[in-house]
Amino acid sequence: MEEINHVAVLDFGSQYTQLIVRRVRELGFFAKLYQPEDLAEIGKPGAIILSGGPMSTSHPDAPDIDFELLKGYGVPVLGVCYGMQLLNIKFGGSVEASDRREYGPAGLYPVASEGLYEGITDKSQVWMSHSDTVKNLGESCKVIAKNQHGTPVSLQWGESFYGIQFHPEVTHSHEGTRILHNFLLTAKDLEPFRIEDFKRELIENIKKTVGDKQVVCGVSGGVDSTVLAVLLNEAGVNVRAIFVDQGLMRKNEAEEVKNNFHRLGVEIEAIDASKLFLDALAGEPDPEKKRVIIGNLFIDVFWDTVGNAEMLAQGTLYPDVIESASNDKSKASKIKTHHNRVDRILELQKQGKVLEPLAELFKDEVRELGHSLGIPDDILNRHPFPGPGLAVRCPGEITLERLNVIRDCDAIFINALKEHGWYDKVWQAYAGLIPVKTVGVKGDERSYEWATNLRAVISEDAMTADWVELPPSLLREVSNKILNEVSGINRVLYDISTKPPASIEWE
Ligand SMILES: Nc1ncnc2c1ncn2[C@@H]1O[C@H](COP(=O)(O)OP(=O)(O)OP(=O)(O)O)[C@@H](O)[C@H]1O
């Protein structure tokens, strides 16, 4: 997508850089992240943003920028934090090193309500996170905003170079998105980001790269691999989509996955490996060992089915790519989880046989792409489901009986959430099993049965999560139904633990 007038974000290492890309895309423009040393290879930018970074500009290893090349693009440039300090130095000014860090909220006072600060209110809260500050201003520099102490926090050099000391991309900068938008409005001919155009381009690229080879992909029923498989299908290439049923899916899920792909017009090969997995897991209570058994067996089953792949498609998303790029600078995408045979994939990757068409997209954009491919909402809005499936919701030994109890409880809970309009409001919900027997009474008889734990959380990125305050009437309805209908359960618990310290799943 480098041919279009996109927004090039140069990454100087700030923890917030990815957020800048997100914000720009949320504003409707296409943005892409680059390393500063790749400035010559950013195609045709319509605007350039220099991110913040952890280093001081005075550090001998501080990342630099080819200023002549930067000016040569002739487009508006915005330096954020480190980016602003670097620009000031390039314009002949100076930066004062400090070992004291300014971290937290500050008041923003624009000098005039125009340009970057058009429509921005006085005293608007912005978020600071820096130690060095600008000392002498560079050539043709004017101060365009100050903080509550009168210290310059935003500069402009000439007509089209801007700098801001604070971080507009974080939500603690209350009008940060508007400031970013104002900056983007100074750029000419920025192409709006339209998923339809993006889709067309992806399809063209897939056709070109794949030609008449066969592409293999694993489909889990989850959003990423479903969108991937439908996209490949839409491109008309020869796809072999493989679904491994490891016997750890939810109630009727394997059938549902098959039906969903049928609805989507994608043929899949479903491998029923459930007995293999259950046999391998028999008698193993240790959570780590269970994961390893599942991961390794998946790899064996998947690759035994595939044989020799001419090409492999993976549903790698943008955050995965960025994560690995900033770790090792190799820009090679992270290999997705335990699900793929890493050495096998690395080999294919070296030979240029791994296709990652979704690698420029964030999760919500993948959903949008899925939508434009005609994938129905009930598939796109599915809750995330862990790779090792119900195994992580069944502490202790895994048996078919235990899995079936979980399946029954889970189906009752999820159906109730759907019926009462809660399913789409929560990030993830499920019922698990606590395989501890406690005393109860069923009918006139004393019972001695397990407990089920219901969990419903909201989260943005799964890194943190909060439990959902579901209405007591809904919990009562679910509890009654489970206690009446699921044999083996005489207790229903609702998990009210936040993450951290608890995790979303139990294992
Ligand atoms: N049961 C399965 N059968 C076939 N392929 C699978 C299966 N589970 C996972 N995969 C493959 O491994 C990849 C990574 O799995 P992971 O559980 O991490 O899901 P994910 O990254 O959320 O992707 P998705 O949304 O497609 O599930 C999937 O995108 C898919 O290609």
UniProtKB/TrEMBL annotation:
<feature type="binding site">
    <location>
        <begin position="220"/>
        <end position="226"/>
    </location>
    <ligand>
        <name>ATP</name>
    </ligand>
</feature>
<keyword id="KW-0332">GMP biosynthesis</keyword>
<keyword id="KW-0436">Ligase</keyword>
<dbReference type="Pfam" id="PF02540">
    <property type="entry name" value="NAD_synthase"/>
</dbReference>
<keyword id="KW-0315">Glutamine amidotransferase</keyword>
<dbReference type="Pfam" id="PF00117">
    <property type="entry name" value="GATase"/>
</dbReference>
<dbReference type="InterPro" id="IPR017926">
    <property type="entry name" value="GATASE"/>
</dbReference>
<dbReference type="GO" id="GO:0005829">
    <property type="term" value="C:cytosol"/>
</dbReference>
<dbReference type="InterPro" id="IPR022310">
    <property type="entry name" value="NAD/GMP_synthase"/>
</dbReference>
<dbReference type="InterPro" id="IPR001674">
    <property type="entry name" value="GMP_synth_C"/>
</dbReference>
<dbReference type="GO" id="GO:0003921">
    <property type="term" value="F:GMP synthase activity"/>
</dbReference>
<dbReference type="InterPro" id="IPR014729">
    <property type="entry name" value="Rossmann-like_a/b/a_fold"/>
</dbReference>
<keyword id="KW-0547">Nucleotide-binding</keyword>
<dbReference type="GO" id="GO:0005524">
    <property type="term" value="F:ATP binding"/>
</dbReference>
<keyword id="KW-0067">ATP-binding</keyword>
<dbReference type="InterPro" id="IPR029062">
    <property type="entry name" value="Class_I_gatase-like"/>
</dbReference>
<feature type="domain" description="GMPS ATP-PPase">
    <location>
        <begin position="193"/>
        <end position="382"/>
    </location>
</feature>
<dbReference type="InterPro" id="IPR004739">
    <property type="entry name" value="GMP_synth_GATase"/>
</dbReference>
<dbReference type="InterPro" id="IPR025777">
    <property type="entry name" value="GMPS_ATP_PPase_dom"/>
</dbReference>
<dbReference type="Pfam" id="PF00958">
    <property type="entry name" value="GMP_synt_C"/>
</dbReference>
<comment type="function">
    <text>Catalyzes the synthesis of GMP from XMP.</text>
</comment>
<keyword id="KW-0658">Purine biosynthesis</keyword>
<comment type="pathway">
    <text>Purine metabolism; GMP biosynthesis; GMP from XMP (L-Gln route): step 1/1.</text>
</comment>
<protein>
    <recommendedName>
        <fullName>GMP synthase (glutamine-hydrolyzing)</fullName>
        <ecNumber>6.3.5.2</ecNumber>
    </recommendedName>
</protein>
